[in-house]
Fold this sequence. Notes:
By secondary structure, this protein is of the alpha/beta class. It is 38% helix and 23% strand. It has helices at residues 45-53, 75-78, 99-110, 113-117, 121-132, 151-163, 181-198, 209-214, 233-237, 241-252, 259-263; strands at residues 2-11, 19-29, 34-39, 60-65, 68-69, 82-85, 169-173, 201-205, 218-223, 226-232. The strands form two sheets. Strands 6-7-8-3-9-10 form a six-stranded mixed β-sheet, sandwiched between helices. The longest helix is centred in the last third of the chain and has 18 residues, at 181-198. It is globular. The structure holds adenosine-5'-triphosphate (ATP). Adenosine-5'-triphosphate is lined by residues 11-12, 19, 21, 39, 41-47. Its main location: membrane.
Amino acid sequence: xxxxxxxxxxxxxxxxxxxxxxxxxxxxxxxxxxxxxxxxxxxxxxxxxxxxxxxxxxxxxxxxxxxxxxxxxxxxxxxxxxxxxxxxxxxxxxxxxxxxxxxxxxxxxxxxxxxxxxxxxxxxxxxxxxxxxxxxxxxxxxxxxxxxxxxxxxxxxxxxxxxxxxxxxxxxxxxxxxxxxxxxxxxxxxxxxxxxxxxxxxxxxxxxxxxxxxxxxxxxxxxxxxxxxxxxxxxxxxxxxxxxxxxxxxxxxxxxxxxxxxxx
Length: 264
Ligand SMILES: Nc1ncnc2c1ncn2[C@@H]1O[C@H](COP(=O)(O)OP(=O)(O)OP(=O)(O)O)[C@@H](O)[C@H]1O
């Protein structure tokens, strides 16, 4: 489904600011894998997401989606089969457009005919049902401007927009980090529900270790541009935060130094 081989990314190569953001990344995901990604600040998590989504091109190595080499495919073309939700609830939606218009925009990304045909009765019903599945009562407010929604509601709509067309790959970039605990929990639960229902292949970056342990079937820890831990299924279910801290110390010979990770 998703395959990265020998992926390297260096910023400002040959200068004093040279930074190896990704160092020989090999990663292979099966359909339906839900991978949580943790790691200290600057570990390379966002760079990895940007390379998968096409925002960045690797210096060496390749990215394949469903067997197709997409390494040089620009972001706008990849957005047909990649859904992404960012940390900032403002990032995924257009505030001056209504909920329905935002959904129509997301829908048109994967369905070229939909822009020409506008919002038909059948499609409006599909949007209404999709929004109802969030259990937030927003299906009664399809004509409300998204800018008027709370951060949590807006992030729920972003999540829906990224997923209701069933993308091949879903990228979640600390998408609950900017929300208060109650709303963060709500979005976490919605994420679990949506990913399970559609069996979406998902990568989720989080600084919250508990969330990384509770969600998904696989956990990856990154450090200094490398994947240093890759834990799956049963082994993941038995892990605790202390185990993860100990593993990091065993591998790197130092304590995991990230206040955000520890405090989450
Ligand atoms: N556009 C860029 N130009 C120069 N250096 C960059 C750029 N983007 C990332 N880096 C550097 O590459 C490294 C990896 O950054 P990245 O943002 O991928 O880390 P991260 O794991 O997402 O960190 P955080 O948890 O702090 O968001 C860091 O040292 C960062 O400073």
